[in-house]
């Protein structure tokens, strides 16, 4: 009985935390452009943390990798920032890519739904999905780099922040699985998917 009560309060706390985060999301949603000008390592590091859409998608990558297990725990979080750099280059070059904001919103919806439905596709398909969404997120960052005072440091900063967000998702995913079981990861996955739906229709 005590063990069951502990699980209940753990799930309740997790859901409450995610709910508060999603309530805060609307005010952060359009924060792609760093206020006060972009440039330097610190501004680059802060940039992925300033928009809930970027934050949720990057967190989901780590969470999904942890849920699928095996090599996915590290292949997904490594692939995302690498491909994101390619998207950043396209953004710097001014290469026209339509519906980037829609792609970003879809990334949250799809990744959250994948976690909620415990979807375990073949690794090549998971990496392809991650890569497609990484281009969208990288492009959104890269489109701002020409105006940055130090674009190289800015890029390093946001890649480092992305890696740390992935690690946070992996840590939560592995921790929840060990303590409460893999199925409970469906709760944050569903909340993330709802956030993606909000960004898609907002």
Description:
It contains eight helices and no strands. By secondary structure, the protein is an all-alpha fold. The protein has one domain. The longest helix is centred in the C-terminal third of the chain and has 30 residues, at 151-180. It is globular. It starts with a helix and ends with a helix.
Outline: globular
Q: Decide which structural class fits the backbone.
A: mainly alpha
- Radius of gyration, rounded? 17 Å
Given as residue ranges, the uncertain stretches (5+ residues, pLDDT < 50) are 1-38
Average residue pLDDT = 79
How many helical stretches?
Answer: 8
Compact summary:
With 202 residues, the protein is mostly helical. The protein has helices at 2-28, 40-46, 52-68, 72-93, 100-116, 123-142, 151-180, 186-201.
Task: Give the SSE map.
Elements: H1 2-28, H2 40-46, H3 52-68, H4 72-93, H5 100-116, H6 123-142, H7 151-180, H8 186-201
Helix pairs in contact: 1-8, 2-7, 3-4, 3-5, 3-7, 3-8, 4-6, 4-7, 5-6, 5-8
């Amino acid at each position: 009985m005590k063990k069951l009560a502990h699980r209940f309060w753990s799930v309740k706390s997790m859901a409450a935390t995610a709910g508060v985060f999603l309530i805060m999301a609307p005010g952060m949603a359009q924060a792609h452009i760093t206020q006060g000008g972009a440039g330097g390592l610190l501004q680059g590091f802060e940039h992925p943390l300033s928009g809930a859409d970027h934050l949720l998608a990057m967190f989901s990558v780590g969470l999904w990798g942890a849920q699928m297990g095996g090599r996915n725990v590290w292949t997904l979080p490594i692939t995302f920032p690498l491909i994101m750099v390619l998207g950043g280059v396209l953004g710097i070059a001014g290469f026209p890519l339509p519906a980037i904001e829609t792609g970003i919103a879809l990334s949250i919806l799809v990744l959250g739904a994948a976690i909620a439905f415990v979807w375990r596709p073949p690794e090549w398909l998971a990496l392809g999905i991650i890569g497609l969404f990484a281009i969208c997120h990288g492009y959104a960052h890269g489109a701002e780099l020409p105006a940055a005072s130090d674009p190289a440091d800015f890029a390093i900063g946001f890649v480092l922040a992305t890696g740390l967000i992935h690690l946070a998702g992996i840590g939560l995913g592995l921790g929840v699985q060990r303590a409460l079981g893999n199925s409970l990861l469906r709760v944050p996955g569903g909340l993330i998917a709802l956030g993606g739906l909000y960004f898609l229709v907002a």
